[in-house]
Amino acid sequence: MSKLIFFDVDGTLWDEKMEIPDSTITTLKELQKNGHKIFICSGRARSNIRAAKLLNIGFDGIIAACGNHIELDGGIVYENILSPELTKKAVRVLDECHMPVVLEGPECHWIDQENFKDDPYILYLFREMGESAKVLDGYSEDMRINKMSGDILPTTDYERIKKEFEQDFDFLEHEGNVVEMIPKGTSKATGIEWLCKYLHADRCDTYAIGDSVNDLDMLTYVGHGIAMGNGTAPAKEAAEYVTSDIHEDGIRNAMKHYGLIL
Predict the structure, then answer these.
(1) Which neighbouring-strand residues pair with 101?
(2) Can you tell me the distance from the alpha carbon of 173 to that of 150, in angstroms, rounded to the nearest whole number?
(3) What pLDDT does residue 1 have?
(4) Which of 50, 93, 95, 134 has a CA between 20 and 30 Å from the CA of residue 250?
(5) Which helix (DSSP H) or strand (DSSP E) does residue 30 occupy?
(6) Which of 176, 181, 219, 183 lies closest to 8 in space, CA to CA?
(7) Helices 250-257 and 22-33 sit at what angle, rounded to 10 degrees?
(8) Is 176 helix (H, G, I), strand (E, B) or coil?
(9) Is 129 exposed, middle or buried (0-12, 13-18, 19+ CB in 10 A)?
């Protein structure tokens, strides 16, 4: 019976240098050959999932922006965009509270270039995204946003931000004082749930593999949650199975463990 298998990107499909192990690519092809469907399931918004070496693998679909954008066979089947009113308020409040922010949407990112300074990730966004990476200079009506990410600085009034937006966002806090602001009640898990209903798929036939805090919901939601050996302690605790490191054939070993490939 066909299974649905969901893969996080950063730390799972590729490493910090965006290198995809050969064994991972071979495994993904074998899964499809065996009749299973494979999906990207990322916290990245769709406009930041563009690397040819990733997309050319030929995934059956993409869940992006922590469940707020879903594609199947190259077409968009679900999209959750923040309201203009909420986006405008967020731009104002985050500026007043001194939080450098990236507004992440399906077509573009709006980036607080000045306050991120020489942050390596921000430099990467401008380099990789080209014209789709725009400098944030106040609110503009063309902003279409799924979610946001920001840095919690010593000068950031983070308590005010959480109070102002407690009804609007869930806050996923990462190592390094980075926080993702996800529309309330949405996650990679809700994206998987939506897609399963759309495809009339049984939850017990789903697998997910990830490594970090924004993978926790999906690891516990799917029938079989898998953590990478290089993953965080919370991801490993949430998972049914912990595989090996990304560069020790982690994905291949996980798929063999479950009998999805030989």
Answers:
(1) 150
(2) 10
(3) 80
(4) 50
(5) helix 22-33
(6) 219
(7) 30
(8) coil
(9) middle
257: which 2 tokens? Answer: 């463990």
d(CA 59, CA 37): 8
The DSSP secondary-structure symbol of 20 reads P
Residue with tokens 């937006």: 165
Q: What is the pLDDT of residue 87?
A: 98
Cβ–Cβ < 8 Å for 41, 74 = no
Q: Using one digit for the tens of pLDDT, what is the confidence trace for 229-254?
A: 999 999 999 999 999 999 999 999 99
Give the DSSP H/E element, type plus range, for residue 86.
helix 84-96
- pLDDT tier at 51 (50, 70, 90 boundaries)? very high
What are the contacts of 239-244 at 24+ separation with CB within 8 A? 243/209
pLDDT digits (tens, 9 = 90+) for 176-206: 899 999 999 999 999 999 999 999 999 999 9
Find out whether 209 and 226 touch, Cβ atoms under 8 Å.
Answer: yes
Residue that is written with structure tokens 């306050």 in the block: 115
201 phi and psi angles, rounded to 5 deg: -100, 145
Q: What is the pLDDT of residue 11?
A: 97
* Three-state SS at 10: strand
Name the phi and psi angles at 34, rounded to 5.
-85, 5
Sign of CA dihedral 64, 219, 227, 57: negative
Instruction: Count the neighbouring beta carbons within 10 Å of the beta carbon of residue 20.
Output: 18
CB proximity list for 95: less than 8 A, separation 6 or greater: 112
Q: How many CB atoms lie within 10 A of CB 204?
A: 9
